[in-house]
Specification:
The protein is an alpha+beta fold. It is built from 5 helices and 10 strands.
Length: about 150
């Protein structure tokens, strides 16, 4: 059992774990889970100055790095590379990280656009598993700061 599922169970979270064909993008995940790309949360890890931040935003959005830099009050913001992601999330398949930074000691910043839906879906640390839960539960366990850095594609 992975650390995400153990954590959700320990926290008494109401969630549904689904198994699906392997997906490599959050848009593919939305298709196999039969939900809008706006309901699928993708994590994007950035290096902001000397630390890492997990950014959570809808699958159908992209990060505006200049806006994120302003929102974080950082001097420099850049995307984390794959070797760094493997180091930060050793128990996850690369690209299937859940958008809950605190499980790995990272702060989570959530784009305000996620607030539009009452249910969210995201990868469960593997490319063939997803978790769906109420947004309120996600916010309770991820404890994200809310910011404005996402742009619709």
């Amino acid at each position: 059992m992975n650390s995400l599922i153990s954590y959700l169970d320990e926290q008494g979270v109401h969630y549904r774990l689904s198994h699906h064909p392997t997906t490599y993008t959050s848009q593919e995940l939305a298709q196999v889970e039969h939900v809008s790309g706006k309901k699928v949360i993708k994590p994007v890890v950035v290096r902001a100055d000397s630390g890492f931040v997990l950014c959570a935003l809808p699958a159908s959005y992209r990060i505006d790095l200049a806006e994120l830099k302003d929102q974080l009050g950082a001097r420099d913001v850049r995307l984390a590379d794959e070797p760094m992601l493997q180091e930060l999330f050793p128990d996850c398949e690369l690209g299937a990280e859940p958008p809950i930074g605190r499980l790995w000691g990272l702060p989570t910043v959530m784009d305000e656009s996620v607030l539009r839906d009452d249910m969210v879906t995201f990868q469960a640390g593997r490319h063939d598993q997803a978790v769906t839960m109420p947004l309120a539960e996600y916010r309770r366990i991820a404890q994200p700061e809310i910011a404005h850095f996402g742009r619709q594609r």
